[in-house]
Write a structure and sequence with these properties.
The complex is a heterodimer of chains A (about 290) and B (about 400). Chain A has one domain: Orthogonal Bundle (ABC transporter involved in vitamin B12 uptake, BtuC), CATH 1.10.3470. Chain A is an all-alpha fold and about 290 residues long. Chain A is about 75% helix and about 5% strand. Chain A has a two-stranded antiparallel ribbon. Chain A is built from 12 helices and 2 strands; from the N terminus they run ααααββαααααααα. Helices cover about 45% and strands about 15% of the residues of chain B. Chain B folds into 2 domains: about 170 residues, Rossmann fold (3-Layer(aba) Sandwich), CATH 3.40.50.2300; about 170 residues, 3-Layer(aba) Sandwich (Rossmann fold). The N terminus of chain B is likely disordered. Chain B is an alpha/beta fold and about 400 residues long. The chains are: A mainly alpha (about 290), B alpha/beta (about 400). At the A-B interface, α1 and α10 of A face β7, α7 and α8 of B.
């Protein structure tokens, strides 16, 4: 096989992995601060995907343009979910949190099934079949836009946590819960805000994802698992780790399909997870930011 | 006062008894035929195979009026959705039987049909398979399972013969092909079958690479990149509907138009494929069990479909689903009863020559398989399906090679 083939597959894998990473970023942010693993994460992404599909089918609004409004809707939903439902569970045992969020996920899946039915829905943008050719490299236009949007959003998120007062306060909560309370930070509000940011992140990822894949209600659990694999690989709670994990999983799936058999793509992705858990349990970048 | 009455003689008693017996027996026969046979139709109406399931359903919708015009008894259709899932298919079959289904029809997908066949055999309820090609289904010694659809080796045998005919017509043939197939029950059966059947035909091409993939995959970019890298002349595919559309999208994006796309399964001729992809749907050639356009009942079915679903092309899905219902109604009429054993016996002795599919008609061998079916060859042209083979049914000459995607 020629180098061109490897190059094309690698670029495609990285671009898909960037969107995976953005999706997993929300999960990592929430865990890093609130210390709750959102097991309804993929299901929340499917809500965003359906919003994008409805906006496109009813008003012909491009998912990339609708990215901010959809993220805003998910932000509000996330805030309400944390403030109203999850907050009382913060101090409860982890299995209670797990059951609560699995229940939320099941409710979302079944609600979407009732509203939209089980069939796949997609967005057919004007650039759905476009690709760019640079020499022997052919890049899928949708994936390129999706990857670029993912990088931009991740950069904005990093900037928010690094350069804003609210971001610094949230990081303070993550670093030292008691200390944050002592200095007078409204931890409950900051927790809700963090969950809302995580939800907005997954909302943006969902809007972008409609450019790449069709949506069904049953997609949620698959992507919750995928996000979990990515953040565990990258390091639970580490934002750069989530992006790195996403790209690693995207690349692994792509090369497993190319060099072995496409049927075994997921097997190789889980293989990476097992290796990371065996040799670096804290994840690839977990130690640095834990 | 004494009354005298004349006692009946022996002949009168016998005649009276016979008349009484006939009168008493008549309602049961009349009752059996006047009440509709409850037929559970299991199809993937939702899930990743929903598009095809709904296309099969169109064959169900037009059936009652046509069967009535043929003088066949009524069927009470009980819908069952397999949700494109084997476990759900099994559960729905059990539920339909518990709800009173006297015969089952289904279920398009080999894996789902295998599960339904086990339930039907266990419960002693006849199953007439509309579409499912995995050969094992009719190799289990089942007494209540019947298939009016070719097995994978039958499809392959016909497909290779038709391909040779096609290459002869166009005066060209690919030297290499990439074989891409779904890794479900049907796809695996077809892949196994190729190894056995292909050597029997002197095919002009070699298989440069074989790529198996998940039919529920949401991204087939790597698979197409791998296929493209093989530098083969043509693409040989066994797919479903959603993946056929995904493959086409990737072919366009990765700027690869093979000399030909030769399909030996569903997907590429489906109405949803043609409508969704528009001009990009033109070109693929399907070697599959289709209708014989010259048969009288084909024209009737075509007219009924045009009325009920305007703009929809008649294809395998409606044809074989309709024929399954035809078999059920015909057997019910001859059995004169909804008794499952009587129905199974009647189906076993089916002999319908006035049918729709290519071949001499509908009949079953000792295994419950119609082994007389033949494939046809169709090509997608301007959103329509045109018949290329067999010769007697051909409507047009093949368009070869395919027009490049980028210049459409």
């Amino acid at each position: 096989m020629s180098f061109d083939v490897y190059l094309n597959v690698a670029v495609g894998g990285i671009l898909t992995g960037l969107v995976y990473g953005l999706m997993a970023l929300g999960l990592s942010v929430v865990f890093g601060v609130v210390r709750v693993v959102n097991f309804a994460h993929g299901e929340m992404m499917t809500i965003a995907m359906y919003l994008a599909v409805v906006l496109f089918s009813q008003f012909h609004l491009d998912p990339l343009l609708m990215l901010v409004p959809i993220a805003a809707v998910l932000f509000v939903c996330g805030y309400a979910l944390q403030a109203g439902l999850i907050n009382p569970f913060i101090t409860r045992p982890e299995h209670s949190q797990f059951l609560l969020l699995v229940a939320v996920g099941l409710i979302i899946v079944n609600s979407l099934l009732i509203i939209f039915g089980p069939d796949a829905r997609s967005v057919q943008t004007s650039y759905a079949y476009d690709s760019f050719q640079i020499g022997s490299l052919i890049v899928d236009a949708s994936k390129l836009y999706a990857g670029a949007a993912a990088i931009l959003l991740a950069a904005l998120l990093f900037a928010f946590f690094r350069f804003t007062l609210t971001g610094t306060a949230i990081r303070a909560c993550a670093d030292n819960y008691t200390g944050a309370q002592v200095v007078g930070l409204d931890v409950k509000r900051l927790y809700a805000l963090t969950f809302a940011i995580g939800a907005a992140c997954v909302g943006a990822a969902g809007a972008i994802m409609t450019l790449i894949i069709d949506v069904t209600p049953m997609l949620g659990p698959t992507y919750t698992l995928l996000a979990f694999v990515i953040v565990v690989t990258g390091g639970l709670g580490s934002m750069p780790g989530a992006l790195l994990g996403g790209m690693l999983i995207g690349l692994t799936e792509a090369f497993a399909g190319l060099l072995f058999t496409p049927s075994a793509k997921s097997m190789f992705a889980f293989g990476i997870l097992v290796l990371v858990l065996l040799f670096r349990p804290q994840g690839l970048l977990g130690k640095r930011l834990a | 006062m004494m009354r005298f009455c004349r006692l009946p003689n022996r002949r009168q008693v016998l005649a009276g008894a016979a008349a009484t017996a006939a009168t008493l027996a008549a309602p049961s026969v009349l009752r059996a035929q006047s009440s509709a046979l409850k037929v559970g139709v299991l199809l993937p109406r939702s899930g990743f195979e929903a598009g095809i399931g709904q296309d099969c359903q169109r064959g169900v919708e037009v059936a009652p009026a046509i069967l009535k015009s043929l003088g066949l008894p009524d069927l009470a259709i009980m819908d069952g959705d397999t949700e494109s899932n084997v476990d759900t298919a099994r559960a729905r079959a059990e539920r339909l039987i518990n709800d009173g289904a006297q015969l089952l029809i289904g279920a398009f997908d080999s894996g789902q049909t295998t599960a339904i066949a086990q339930v039907a055999e266990q419960k002693g309820i006849p199953l007439v398979i509309n579409i499912a090609a995995a050969p094992d289904i009719t190799e289990q010694g089942y007494k209540f399972v019947f298939r009016n659809f070719p097995t994978a080796p039958m499809i392959l045998g016909s497909a290779f013969a038709n391909q040779l005919e096609l290459f002869g017509i166009v005066g060209a043939a690919p030297k290499t092909v990439v074989f891409m197939h779904v890794n479900d029950t049907f796809g695996t059966a077809m892949a196994k079958g190729i190894g056995v059947v292909m050597p029997k035909f002197n095919m002009p091409y070699a298989i440069a690479d074989e790529i198996a993939y998940d039919p529920t995959a949401r991204d087939l970019s790597v698979e197409v990149a791998k296929a493209k890298a093989a530098n083969a002349d043509a693409l040989l595919v066994v797919s479903r509907l959603n993946d056929a559309m995904l493959l086409t999208r990737e072919l366009v994006k990765q700027r690869w138009t093979p000399q030909a796309i030769m399909s030996m399964g569903p997907g590429w001729y489906e109405d949803q494929y043609l409508k969704t992809l528009g001009k990009l749907a033109d070109g693929p050639i399907s070697f599959d069990p289709f209708q014989d356009p010259n048969k009288k009942l084909t024209k009737v079915l075509q007219a009924a479909l045009a009325k009920s679903s305007p703009g929809v092309n008649l294809s395998t899905n409606q044809v074989y689903t309709f024929e399954a219902l035809l078999i059920a109604a015909d057997a019910y009429k001859r059995a004169g009863s909804a008794d499952s054993k009587a129905l199974a016996d009647a189906i076993r002795s089916t002999s319908i020559t006035d049918n729709v599919s290519i071949g001499p008609g509908i009949q079953f061998n000792a295994k419950g398989q119609n082994d007389k079916l033949k494939d046809g060859t169709l090509q997608n042209r301007d959103g329509k399906l045109v018949t290329l083979a067999p010769k007697e049914a051909a409507e047009a000459k093949p368009e070869w090679p395919m027009k490049p995607y980028q210049s459409r």
